[in-house]
Amino acid sequence: xxxxxxxxxxxxxxxxxxxxxxxxxxxxxxxxxxxxxxxxxxxxxxxxxxxxxxxxxxxxxxxxxxxxxxxxxxxxxxxxxxxxxxxxxxxxxxxxxxxxxxxxxxxxxxxxxxxxxxxxxxxxxxxxxxxxxx
Length: 134
Fold this sequence. Notes:
alpha+beta
């Protein structure tokens, strides 16, 4: 792993979700934020490089938060996000990275202790470093 794509993946994913979602998407949740909204959770990077290619397997947790008493709102928002992620490629070219493959590994939703629901989409991608000065 010669270059770490975490920052550009984070930036591109926030911009992508803000364009595709019908609810707010936060990098940092402001005080007084109104639900529903989307945040990013854990971001993992695993080296999958070869002698000639610098490739990183990325996994990003996308969280959907709602106070709706039931799963309908969470599942509807998740479906919209999953469809967008499955049909449009993230643009990482600003930092000279390329998404070779991307897709949703799994989705789960569960009730929160106090109220509402949390949904988690596990998004995976293979990111290639396109910079030649490695």
